[in-house]
Protein 1
Amino acid sequence: MNKCALLPVFLASFIFHIQTVLAQEFTQVASLKVTTLSTMLASRGIGEWGYAALIEVDGKKILFDTGNRPETVLQNAKDLDIDLSDVEDVILSHNHGDHTGGLIYLREALRKQNPKALSRVHVGKGIFSERANSKNSIWQTRDKLIALGSEFIVYDEPTEIFPGVWLTGQVPRIHAEKNWSGRGQIATHSGLIEDNIPEDLSLVIDTDDGFVLVSGCGHAGIINTMEHITAHIHPGKITTAIGGFHLVSASDEHLAWTAKKLQGFGLEQMIGAHCTGIDALYTLRGHLNSDRKHMVVGSVGDEFTLKNGVKAGFIAH
């Protein structure tokens, strides 16, 4: 047989092999729903300075952060007719109280219905570091939760916690997206160092349409985080970003730079809640030539699904 005639057969076989390898290595989720349970704006429920979201992915429920005040998340869930008693996994994006404040209250309340509710707490390495000039309330939270039967699982690198569902672990600060206060310090054996919130981690869901990123505050920087995802999970588009991204104080120049980078990742949809900043969200929307259907300010009760995309709360629509 002519060698040229064999080429299409070889290419077809090679492509099939590559597709098979990729399918074996990376799992894409089939269903996903993200519901905001704590942020400042609220059409239904209670608004507060904090963040929390319920992640429902392929039949699994995960609580991402727990808001600020003890009762907010549970009350908002009730107002939205959401049952949290079957949520056994909770992710804490970092140690700040506006993301961890509801955890003990939720564990105590929900374990009456389900002893395993919020019994697995996923955190980034560094969350228990000794903060030199601020009170690290996460220590008290940890001790109380352990007494209540919960366990802490610590991550320092990207880890697939469920099929197609990843945690970033610690994110290197390659770009100067310095979006923490600069006043905090961490006590180490060799002295005090700047507290840049080293434990900051995000949730990443791998879908057929691209990655969905869920962030609490994004202290590591949204672009640093996205580059970390594509370098260490797998290359691909990051089509959706949900949560807090701490751009509230970003300059116009920094927002323009951020938007250009986001465009390179293929970002199509965004729910900018909590510390993202209202004006910052609108500025990014303008740079990305997006609209109020695809890029919105986050509010309690808003949703994202793979089928329908962003469903904004009335106040933010």
Protein 2
Amino acid sequence: MSRIYKILPRSEWTAAQAAGAFNGSAIDLADGFIHFSTGSQAGETARRHFAGVGDLIVLEVEGDRLGETLRWEPSRGGDLFPHLYGPLLTSDVCGVTEAPLGPDGVPQIGDLA
């Protein structure tokens, strides 16, 4: 089992729950896939892309359930990141946690590794 994580604003998750699927944040839509991180990558993703952004949550997904629409592709420093080419069904989300901003302005995502 390979758990992967998506950091996003709570409002986007609320909309996805109403629709039954998450089609991606603005950057996902621009890039043509939904960006995910592994547990060991998520902290750096939070620091680089979400510093100062409030009201965030972290979705936990069992990557193996996503089938061929999930691809592992090189990104930051050649590290392989999970990218989902298609919508994320809300039924595929196995956990949702809060990601409050820490004193340094970086979302606190806990220990995901």
Protein 3
Amino acid sequence: MAIRGGDDAESVRERPASGGADPSTHQLRLFLTLAEELHFGRAAARLFITQPAFSQQIRSLERRLGLQLIDRTSRAVELTPAGRALLPRARAVTEAMAELRREAEARSRAVAERIVIGTLSAEPAMPHTHAILDELNKRQPGLTVEIRSLNFVNQYDALASGEVDAAFLRPPAPPGIQVLQLAEEPRVVCLPAEDPLAGEAEVRLDQLSGRPMVTMPPESPKEWRDYWAINPRPDGSPLHFGPLAVDVEGVLHAVSRRQAIGILPASARTFYPRPGIVYRDLTDAPSCTMALAWFAKNRDRADIALLRNIAHSVVHNTALQEETTALQEETPD
């Protein structure tokens, strides 16, 4: 005769043996549902799982506890004395876990109200950086924005590791990092004030032949190192490298000590004036770009998507303003 609860009589009469493993909250929730329904089929349907799978989980729970919780007879499913005794405890555990999940989710949302943005060198002072952060504050006034300084070594690793959520950096970026170009500017050579080329208004790359370049850290991407050293040179002249620098201050120190020269963005003139060094235009050096960067796998994360959208709008508005200014300058009085 089939048992109403769906288990065969011989297996359910066996006394469970303790398996030593703790019961899962999932199993406890199944037990609570069965205690309410007192029917395997209805309890399984209520939780949208099959009856055999439901029965298997209840048997596993009994084995883990070393107790028979359910008295399965040919007429009904009932709780054993042990089942009735453990019912309040099972309910307390599942309620505590539910509260834990709610608290964790609340904390997660609180964490999501904070974004860490990395910056390299003078990027925090750039107009586009201010415009993007101002707009971010307008759209998300409750968002805490932490600015974290990066250097030549950790600028891209910090994105991949999650140390920062996004960053204002100088491409080229290695694989796995996506960028949105924000602005472009020329590059300059940074020379000791006593260098013979310091008296020139403009310098060509071939005039730098033989002068040692500041060495970029080997931990940084090779493509990035070569780009900033302009290696290889257009005329094929070999490069000589001097002391290592992990940030702009290190570059400036090596130059001021007359140990090497460095190639930097033109904005270094404004943000890094130093005694003993001069900046000269490089007439034949490719320009450099400023960009917002993020780890490719985080592209569609809500905070990154918002930051990207804001950066897009800032770049678009800046381009429109520049175009309008150019048209006004071309319009005859």
